[in-house]
Queue: 2 jobs
Job 1
Amino acid sequence: MAIDLTLNIAARALTVDQAALGVIGNNIANVNTPGYTRQVPVLSAASEQGGGTFHLDGGVLLQSVQQILDPFVAQRLLAATTDAAQKNAVATQLTALVSQLDDLGDSSLTTLLGNFFAAASAVANQPQDTAARQGLLGAASALANELNRRSALVAQLQQHVDDQIVGDATQANDDLAQIAQLNADIARETAQGGQANGLRDQRRQVLADLAQKIGITTQEDPTTGEVTVASTAGPVLVAGGTVVNGIATQADPSNPNTLGGNTLHQVLLQTPSGALVDVPAVFASGEIGGLLEVRDNNLLTASQNLDALASALATAVNAVQTQAGAVDLNGNPTTGVPLFSGTTASTLAVAITDPSKIAAALSNQPGDNQNALALADLATTAQPTLGNRTFSGYAASETARLGEDARQAQGLATASQGVLQQVQNQRDALSGVNLNEELTSLLSFQHAFQASAQVISVVNSTLDELMQIVS
Amino acid sequence: MISRIADIQIFDQLRTQATGIEATLATLQGEVSSGKRFQTADADPLAAGEVLRTTTTLGALAQYTSSVQFGLSVLGAEDSALGDAAQIMTRAQEIATEQANGTVTASDRAAAAEEVHGLLQALTSIGNTELSGRRLFGNLALDAPPPFTSPDASGYDPTAAYTGPTQEFSIKVGSSASERVRISTSGGTVFGGSLKALSDLETALRNNDIAGVAGTIAALQQGQQDISAERASVGARENQLQTLQSQQASLTLNAQTTLSTLQDADLASVLSQLTQGQVALQAVLQAGAMIAQTTLAGLIKL
């Protein structure tokens, strides 16, 4: 009887060791899988078996395969992911803006403003020279074109950011549906006594993806294994196997921050009935939050400042060009002949093509250069609409401001990335796979397996001995 | 305290460190190839703003310098023309003094009248001098008709000989609107008295009017004084522009030094940082290779 029991115990141990080797093999296989949570076989001694005179413990049982993780760290990881994604989105876009404006390159606004006023000064020295006048028109055109280019560039960047917001919102909505589906699958497997470890890992990955887009909190039901996902701002997004509030986007033609001919989108919650609800707080964090901030604040300000410069320039230059008494090369008054048309950076253009229309004189006397001198003086004239700075001074300050914004955003992104890395390290330190550890366990279970096989062999030879006696 | 480390962490860390060092190396290489400490404003926003302001200053200085050079060329030409004009007036005074003497014959006076007419033509011609197509004594008007009427024209009136502009021509030599220097000389004002005196002298000589000849001497002297006074003023303005030129040269040098300090890369330091970075990258990669070897996998004989 006891020999049978021993054989059973050894046979069960072989099965358990094999299963444990399988778990270790799975861990080793997933050593580089991002987000994989290592699993350990939870063994326990089986209860007593047999009866009569002999009482033997029942060998080993594989109770469960447990994932090693700290739910608190997992929550912190979600929060750190959201924060890092938000800061990173802002830093990436502001850095792109600064690099595309290329303010330290040859086409900087300060260079082109300098060229324009140098050309005005050349006209002051040679008021009747058509080449000098043509030079001024050329410099004015280059300046207007650069302001147009910058305005278009900022508008393009805004459209690009909006496209990204729409993409993120769609992705976030897909994530919600996936989480609901995985919740249902996990609940089903849990109900059948399984642990659904693979599904849980998948769900954690989807949650991490969602946390990049918007701020979320999660709460797991210990019985069913389902998680309830809520926005950090309150509204529940997924409960059990159902998406309570989906995420949708809708074109918002009335957005006052729209630049150029852009179509901007609103990000909204979608109730099960299909109604769209505007809850801005839900989308104030994560990548969507960062992108919205850039789209509606930073890019808008950059564009407004370009417009302010363009408007001040057109106003001041035209005021000189069209002032009372100003005459062109042919002695005709230029009262109705402005040099620039348009009052914004996107619409600014040189309004005259004939260089003789430039008003260099304030009288009909040949060689008069008084008005050209007045135009050249604008280079150093403080402009009340630009905070009493000169045109070049304003452009230089704007470059410094944009650079500072980008630098600050980069600093914040680096800091939040550091925090994320730390939390990720905490998570990996606990939940990641260490190959040496696994290989040690591998050896340990291999030896256990060999020992159990040895037990069977011994029992076998014992039984053989008995058989021989009997025969 | 780290009690346990996962393989993914080790390799993540290696990756982060290696890419971090590589990014730094790329930045340093950019500094070496461009010679600039930074290429975009976010790298050093304050310095970027200063660079743009200093570049603007340099541009403005170049503009003022070019105006000053133009002014000097105009004033130089005026100076020399006024010198010639003064000589004409000196000769006219000599003639007037000689011809006011009662011993001189009528035919001598007629001959002198011809010379004085020549002087009148020469002075008119000086008044009509062009510099690169611009009337030196006619507000620097380009391709303009002669501002002085020829003395050979019928009904010549020396007091109305100047028909050019009366406007003054100034150049901008500094940032403020008041920093201007007049470089034009109004021909009518400078030569008007002299032309009248020469014309009167010619008439008196032709009429063999001794008292009339003597009577022009004072006016001829006054005319020469007008010219000399203007020439002194031209000289003073030339001096002013020369002073400005040297000031601007030193300001330009200062601005260039500032710009260089702001944006030029310290090549010695950058190159040593580059070497340091390369060594660090090598070390990280080597550490990675060593860590990869420290695994039980190679030691277990199954």
Note: The longest strand of chain B covers residues 170-172.
Job 2
Amino acid sequence: MAASTKKKNPETGSGNNIAKITRAYIDHLLTKGVRPASVYEFTSKLKIKEQEFYTHFNSFEGLEKSIWAGFIQSTLDILSASEEYPSYPLKEKLLSFYYTFVEVLNKNRSFILQSADKGPEMLRQNTLSKARDTFKDYITQLMTEGTESGEIVKRPYIVDKYPEGLWLQLLFVLRFWIKDDSAGFEKTDAAIEKAVKVSFDLMGPGVVDSLVDMAKFLYQNK
Amino acid sequence: MIKEQISIPVGKVQRASRFLSTGVKVGGNYLKHYALKSINGDTGKDQLHTDNAHDIYEALSELKGSALKAAQMMSMDKNMLPRAYSDKFAMAQYSAPPLSYPLVVKTFRNAFGKAPSEVFDSFSHNAANAASIGQVHKALLNGKKLAVKIQYPGVADSVQSDLKLVKPFALRLMNITESDFKLYMSEVEERLMEETDYELELKRSVSISKACLNEGIKGVSFPVYYPELSGNRIITMDWIEGMHLKEFLKTNPAQEVCNRIGQSLWDFYDFQIHMLRMVHADPHPGNFLFRSDGSLGIIDFGCVKEVPDDFYHNYFRLHSPGALNNYENMVELFYLNEFITDSDTESDKKLYIPLFREIIGLMGKPFFTGEFDFGDDEYFDSIYKLSESLYNNKDVRQSKTARGSKHLLYINRTYFGLYMLLHELRVKVITKSRYQPD
């Protein structure tokens, strides 16, 4: 994620500039407590051209959106670098995702608390829209994998709602973590365990499927 | 306290009976009462019990940690609980929903900066056993089989809140004053907090097992502990082979083998309490691994009761042969053990002195004779009958004073647990202490 790539030479390359802008923006937000007055003021302090900012972001909102998406993306990057991860069953993949995600969040806690401070709507669709897209892409991929392996039951209509449901779960974890005051955020760990267990109990084969199956059988053989 | 004086004799007998039953005064008793009330109350008891037991078990296993511990404490006391309860709780000793592997990995990363697969040559994906506040994985390092115990997240935090949760039930159902309750509760809380402290557990495990080995107690073995592979939520030790008591008994071991194990068990406790003055206070069957060659593996020093000097002296003066023969001497010892206090009225004393004499006389029996046959069903029946008659005593309802030093809680629990183990093994044991002068 951008904010964690510390102290590289602020030379050329758009990647470096994105990192530089993001870092400076977060720094400004956390030290001043407000957004910079304008992109012009922000970029001139940073000694880059205003235009450079606009090649990457359309506004400060846009910048914040990509910071949040960056949290998800860097989580996914860490996971894909792990050797063990691909061999996990689906449920453990999702658990790993959350634990890694929380690690990423921990590194950016001040920024997130600041964001959350502005009110709950901050943590809703707008700022997080890009993060949500990234997350849902990931989940859709997991779902395909899960329905193939049978870990997820393909229930007509409902199955399409799973990514949205899991996004709500991610928001739950995020809010829980924001309010968590336990040492090392242990309670968030426990919350993740429980939440993921519930979601997989719901998405996996269960009582309802057996009932439907039996009803179908009886109907066909009455 | 004055107010409580007015409402006397009744409930006190009950408390005494509790003291007799296990020493699991706190968490356990509300359940017993609950059970009892439903017996005395309406019909449909057995089903009610099963339902209750089920619900409570579900709730407790969700809470994990300290509440599960309470369930474990209760399940030891199976005579005192209706069958349905004790069967359900017996399950709690062996199973609790496991921690996910990714969380195990995370715990390792926090402790060592590495995944378990990088620390060990191999590491089991699934837990081999559930401990009450953690779970055990099997690992292999340099050809050695290891047991790696990992603590559930947030356990320490949840202990206090779990106890708070128990409090309203316990207060109402145990029917004792808040200050008495606090005294016992603080003792339980202290032990439970210690149990969540894996660094302390490691230290104690090493020192107690070393002391026992140096002493040369026959037939007991302990795992070697590995501090370099342990942390504040991880303990690594040798994997110990052996069967749980129930499995072991199913193999129909020879009486001679049982006798040897029984004696080792007694000697192990004898040494701890008299010499170390600290005791493995969690004698539930999961912590002992029985082997067909007559040896015994002992694990889990999470719950250790340190025995203060003055309590030790008072307790064992009371439990020495002949202690109950001289009336004045006995009454003095009852005072010292806080069974009766200066605030008791004459009629209190009239009620309690014979009562405690009976209880101590019965529970202390193994101490009063040099040798004791724990296979004696009659003995355990008479314990059961005594406690039953105390429960059913009609005068038993409203008193609010609890009796007995707070240290008794875990000491009784330990000894009662030990009695039950020895009873199941049906062994005759030399109970005369090797360390106590006559």
Note: Confidence is low (pLDDT under 50) at residues 1-12 of chain A.
